[in-house]
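Design request, tokens follow.
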């Protein structure tokens, strides 16, 4: 039985350049939805945090048909912290759609994903998206894209990529800007023409790579896997080559392929197919499903190492256990172990005590998403300030370096350069597009990025856009000054009063609202001076019979700066922690008692 022609592609790009929106349009136009069926925007961003934040966090697979050709599409996240998802997605596909925003042009993550695609020798189709933007500068962006390929030592073949121009939101693709296309047909045609049909020998030894995991309430753990060789039949006994080299024999009894947003039952898997395999206990990313008698492994999935670490520990604050369901070190350990199964770009180590774990990842956002997910599941925990993972090579202490791109109005050039200078950033490039905005590139230690975003946004009144990309390790760059302020710390427990806040707000910025319950050692504000200050934030106004001349002047409170999780993580210093529970995010000193600090 000849199999259908298959194209497996990943959509890769910098964050927000329109990948998920393009997948929406491809789904709509491939006719898998009934005419009257409503599909929500960015339908592939299916988990709560993805929808709330408007970003893709996990790579996801879907499949469409175009004139009898099955096109499996892997939508990937664009944010650099989730680069591990992209690396794995690329293991399943035979080509990529490299999207670039027609106004923003190639940005750090464009570079990153292209490096990975070129390394994997995957042919690319360039897609210049958002051509409808009033500030689109299509020809320049195309040139920048060629420059990027050349800069990355692309071969002549790789440089010979087709270019399409799209408005993903409207579902239009064109071969040239002048075309009058009203749909995505040119894109589908380009995929069929330029991306090779999936290779592999249906008669060969079975080789299926597990590249991702998913979970279904009905089916439990699902392995998302690509068939490279051989044919898998439902009910066959197969071997799973585990990461430790052992062979686990099992029967595959539940097999699905992707059609639009649905999983459909399958009885066979052939080379090129991307499948979901259910019902296999303990199956893991990177393992090969192969012949039980003549096993043949596929190469391991290698992915980049983590660059930052954070301490995760149980909640020991006086309010521990009030709001969460899972509060013990055992709960925490089990949850982190579960995370390791699906989230291959993080690592977990035991730290100083049995209650403490060192969790390593690609960036603050990646770890913040994990913490946020755990809060929502009912966990209470405390986390420490992110630290950079250094290494020592031939006696030299080295630290991670990032390429940072900041786009800001010319007006703020000075403050941005100054800020980066104090964080050991070296400017490598400055481009003035003549639009009143400039684009600056820096090499800066990863350490220098912690807390930078909020400062730059304040300095540029919210107008700067910044993006960074891990570059590699360099010699330790020396001291970087920390937050120049101290903390206002509650010296006793109680409820914060408006009166006390009113008295304190000149000293710095208050981080809690009146009425908030506090404990001794909890951080309630940012001290304008460099030292910590213990304050009584629960003080009541003394009632007297006397009426002052300014009798009972209404208390005017500046509204508090309530930090969200990422801001809290950026705020804390070495001797401080963020306490998170399903309901609250609190900041505290590691040592609560004043006299022991
Ligand atoms: N004007 C315009 N806006 C677009 C177009 N395509 C996408 N957008 C918008 O760009 C924003 C980001 O789109 P997404 O599809 O979420 O981008 P993404 O690349 O999937 O983002 P990540 O997965 O987080 O990296 C959304 O607000 C889209 O509506 C387009 O062609 N034109
Ligand atoms: Mg997306």
């Amino acid at each position: 039985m000849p199999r259908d022609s298959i194209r497996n592609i990943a959509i890769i790009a910098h964050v927000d350049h329109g990948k998920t929106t393009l997948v929406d349009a491809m789904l709509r136009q491939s006719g898998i939805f009934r005419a009257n069926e409503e599909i929500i925007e960015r339908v592939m961003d299916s988990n709560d945090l993805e929808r709330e934040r408007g970003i893709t966090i996990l790579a996801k697979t879907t499949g469409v048909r175009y004139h009898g050709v099955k096109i499996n599409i892997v939508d990937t996240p664009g944010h650099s912290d989730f680069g591990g998802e992209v690396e794995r997605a690329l293991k399943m596909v035979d080509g990529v759609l490299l999207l670039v925003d027609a106004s923003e042009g190639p940005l750090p993550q464009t570079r990153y994903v292209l490096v990975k695609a070129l390394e994997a020798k995957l042919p690319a189709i360039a897609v210049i998206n958002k051509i409808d933007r009033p500030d689109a500068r299509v020809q320049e962006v195309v040139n920048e894209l060629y420059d990027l390929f050349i800069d990355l030592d692309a071969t002549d073949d790789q440089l010979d990529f087709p270019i399409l121009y799209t408005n993903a939101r409207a579902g239009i693709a064109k071969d040239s800007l002048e075309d009058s296309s009203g749909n995505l047909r040119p894109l589908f045609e380009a995929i069929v023409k330029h991306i090779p049909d999936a290779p592999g020998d249906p008669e060969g030894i079975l080789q299926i790579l597990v590249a991702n995991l998913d979970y279904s309430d009905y089916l439990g753990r699902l392995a998302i896997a690509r068939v490279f060789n051989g044919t898998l039949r439902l009910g066959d006994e197969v071997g799973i080559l585990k990461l430790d080299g052992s062979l686990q024999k099992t029967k595959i009894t539940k097999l699905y392929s992707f059609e639009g947003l649905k999983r459909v039952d399958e009885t066979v898997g052939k080379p090129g197919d991307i499948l979901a395999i259910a019902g296999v206990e303990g199956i893991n990313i990177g393992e090969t499903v192969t012949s039980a008698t003549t096993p043949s492994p596929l190469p391991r999935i290698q992915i980049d190492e983590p660059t930052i670490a954070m301490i995760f520990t149980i909640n020991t604050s006086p309010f521990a256990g009030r709001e969460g369901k899972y509060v013990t070190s055992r709960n925490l350990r089990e949850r982190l172990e579960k995370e390791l199964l699906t989230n291959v770009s993080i690592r977990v180590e035991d730290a100083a005590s049995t209650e403490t774990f060192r969790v390593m990842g690609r960036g603050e956002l990646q770890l913040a998403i994990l913490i946020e997910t755990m809060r929502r599941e009912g966990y209470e925990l405390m986390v420490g300030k992110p630290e950079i993972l250094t290494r020592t090579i031939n006696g030299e202490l080295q630290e991670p370096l990032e390429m940072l791109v900041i786009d800001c109005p010319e007006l703020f050039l000075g403050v941005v350069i100054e800020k980066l200078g104090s964080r050991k950033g070296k400017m490598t490039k400055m481009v003035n597009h003549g639009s009143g905005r400039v684009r600056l590139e820096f090499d800066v230690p990863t350490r220098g990025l912690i807390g930078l975003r909020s400062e730059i946004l304040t300095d540029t009144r919210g107008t700067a856009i910044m993006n960074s990309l891990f570059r590699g390790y360099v010699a330790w760059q020396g001291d970087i000054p920390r937050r120049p302020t101290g903390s206002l710390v509650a010296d006793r427990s109680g409820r914060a009063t408006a009166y006390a806040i009113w008295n304190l707000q000149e000293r710095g910025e208050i981080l809690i609202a009146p009425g908030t319950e506090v404990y001794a050692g909890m951080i309630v504000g940012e001290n304008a001076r460099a030292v910590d200050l213990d304050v009584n934030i629960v003080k009541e106004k003394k009632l007297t019979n006397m009426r002052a001349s300014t009798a009972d002047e209404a208390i005017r409170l500046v509204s508090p700066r309530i930090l969200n999780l990422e801001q809290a993580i950026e705020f804390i210093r070495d001797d401080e922690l963020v306490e998170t529970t399903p309901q609250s995010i609190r900041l505290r000193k590691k040592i609560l008692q004043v006299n022991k600090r």
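Comment from the thread starter after seeing the answer: thanks! The pocket of magnesium ion (ligand 2) is lined by residues 19-20, 45, 56, 75 (CB under 6 Å).
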